[in-house]
């Protein structure tokens, strides 16, 4: 099989050899020039069909979206922007595409329209670039942790526990839909969900990650997680992917250092391996921002922003300092914030974005949050009020990472769990790690789609996951 990928062919610049290419037609001009795309790059391969080579009927079937197998000779191209094109010797139509019915026309479609045809949007330049960058980031994540000797753990999707203790779970049930078992009062007996246990989709792999870290020292998970929150925002999904490293013998400082190094590493990897796609996305973003009023546009282009992020330290502040900055901000004085600002609040996205976009103009790591607004497993600070939490806030996104040093002291942990109505008895297995060889440890969770948003410059989270699950998208 002499099939070559378009990207490799264009990169090699070698001419003279016979090759086979396969892909989908983007455009067909003058019954002579086919722009063929096979998803390896946004650069289409030009196929030249000699006049008279194909019969009328075949020519008519070369339409946008049709799939082709072309055998031909790679020759120097006179067209601008490409060094190689294919002089076709034979051409086979693998699959027709009715031009009248094919929803993708060779023109610019809105992202909203493309969301409705998520099954076809991969065939556009924007989504080609987004999903190749997404792939590169996923690969870089494994590469990063592998180089550091972390063990990749696969944690369960179906579980009986609520890792965050926030009650935002999707129920998983084996109960028959038509005739479920009932309690005496007639309500459905969900205790019978999973062959006699109540189960849900996982909100986080952290707890299992902690168990594994107590043996392997350094582990990470990278898998789908689910939140049954009814939020219709450009930053929330009901199903998203999360990377959760968990490290024994790390304190909060070590945790922050790892998170910062990790984020910079994967951005750098994408910049080195997906330059073309990122430049395409930078251009797309610049055009999109032209529609916005001047003060809503980014100060830096996408590439410039990414370069800035990998070459500068993240700002590190405490929650208390963050609240002070907000209280002293012009935005606060001019009553620009919709939500209240005072010590103790769970910062809203407007507050987080003020800190990173207006005040520091760079990623910010915030530590020492009030314990009331954070999960039960975070290590309590000596002040009795705050926990050793750390969130990383990113420009244009808000919270991208949530993490903490964990409470490794059995007494303190059980006490806190009781206060927060976390079922202590049921979580005996989690507490066992604190009973047998407990050690200081820490970890964090990076929301993968938020990271992809940040790197691609896309503005809606529905556009960086293939098939978004949100309260309004669950069809396919
Ligand atoms: O802050 P969260 O809820 O933290 C945890 O789940 C911890 N167990 C992580 C850990 O310490 N191992 O979520 C972590 C990150 C957030 O910072 C955000 O980037 C992302 O996950 N995230 C979401 N992304 C998309 N849609 C949602 N509904 C998200 N909820 C959280
Ligand atoms: Mg969080």
From TrEMBL:
GO terms for molecular function: asparagine-tRNA ligase activity; ATP binding; nucleic acid binding. Residues 131-468 form the Aminoacyl-transfer RNA synthetases class-II family profile domain. It comes from the Bacteria. Keywords: Aminoacyl-tRNA synthetase, ATP-binding, Cytoplasm, Ligase, Nucleotide-binding, Protein biosynthesis. GO terms for cellular component: cytoplasm. It catalyses: tRNA(Asn) + L-asparagine + ATP = L-asparaginyl-tRNA(Asn) + AMP + diphosphate + H(+). CDD domains: AsxRS_core (cd00776), EcAsnRS_like_N (cd04318). Its EC number is 6.1.1.22. PROSITE patterns: AA_TRNA_LIGASE_II (PS50862). SUPFAM superfamilies: Class II aaRS and biotin synthetases, Nucleic acid-binding proteins. It is found in: Cytoplasm. The keyword Ligase applies. GO terms for biological process: asparaginyl-tRNA aminoacylation. Its main location: cytoplasm. Pfam families: tRNA-synt_2, tRNA_anti-codon. Belongs to the class-II aminoacyl-tRNA synthetase family. Homodimer. This is Asparagine--tRNA ligase. The gene is asnS.
């Amino acid at each position: 099989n002499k099939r070559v990928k378009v990207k490799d062919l264009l990169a090699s610049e070698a001419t003279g050899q016979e090759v086979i290419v396969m892909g989908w037609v983007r455009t067909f001009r003058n019954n002579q020039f086919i722009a063929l795309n096979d998803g390896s790059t946004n650069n289409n391969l030009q196929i030249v069909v000699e006049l008279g080579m194909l019969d009328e009927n075949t020519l008519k079937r070369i339409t946008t979206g049709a799939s082709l197998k072309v055998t031909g000779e790679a020759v120097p191209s006179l067209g601008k922007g490409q060094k190689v094109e294919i002089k076709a010797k034979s051409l086979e139509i693998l699959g027709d595409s009715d031009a009248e019915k094919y929803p993708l026309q060779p023109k610019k479609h809105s992202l909203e329209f493309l969301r409705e045809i998520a099954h076809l949007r991969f065939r556009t330049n924007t989504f080609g670039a987004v999903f190749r960058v997404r792939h590169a980031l996923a690969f870089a994540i494994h590469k990063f942790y592998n180089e550091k000797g972390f063990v990749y753990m696969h944690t369960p999707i179906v579980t009986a526990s609520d890792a965050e203790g926030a009650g935002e779970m999707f129920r998983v049930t084996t109960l028959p839909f038509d005739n479920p078992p009932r309690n005496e009062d007639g309500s459905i007996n969900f205790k019978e969900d999973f062959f006699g246990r109540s189960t849900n989709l996982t909100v986080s792999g952290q707890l299992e990650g902690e168990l594994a870290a107590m043996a392997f020292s350094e582990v990470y998970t990278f898998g789908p997680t689910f939140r049954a929150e009814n939020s219709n925002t450009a930053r929330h999904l009901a199903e998203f992917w999360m990377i959760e490293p968990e490290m024994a013998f790390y304190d909060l400082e070590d945790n922050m250092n790892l998170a910062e190094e990790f984020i910079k590493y994967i951005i750098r990897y994408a910049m080195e391996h997906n330059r073309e796609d990122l430049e395409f996305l930078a251009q797309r973003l610049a055009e999109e921002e032209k529609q916005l009023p001047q003060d809503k546009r980014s100060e830096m282009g996408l590439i410039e922003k990414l370069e800035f992020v990998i070459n500068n330290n993240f700002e590190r502040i405490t929650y208390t300092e963050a609240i002070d900055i907000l209280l002293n901000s012009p935005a606060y004085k001019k009553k620009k914030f919709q939500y209240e600002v005072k010590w103790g609040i769970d910062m809203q996205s407007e507050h987080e974005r003020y800190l990173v976009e207006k005040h520091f103009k760079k990623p910010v790591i915030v530590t020492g949050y009030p314990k009331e607004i954070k999960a039960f497993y975070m290590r309590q600070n000596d002040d009795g009020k705050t926990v050793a939490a750390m969130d990383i806030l990113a420009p244009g996104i808000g919270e991208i990472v949530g993490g903490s040093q964990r409470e490794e002291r059995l007494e303190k942990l059980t006490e806190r769990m009781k206060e927060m109505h976390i079922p202590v008895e049921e979580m005996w297995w989690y507490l066992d790690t604190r009973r047998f060889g407990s050690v200081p440890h820490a970890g964090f969770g990076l929301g993968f789609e938020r990271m992809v948003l940040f790197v691609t410059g896309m503005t809606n989270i529905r556009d960086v996951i293939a098939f978004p699950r949100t309260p309004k998208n669950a069809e396919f």
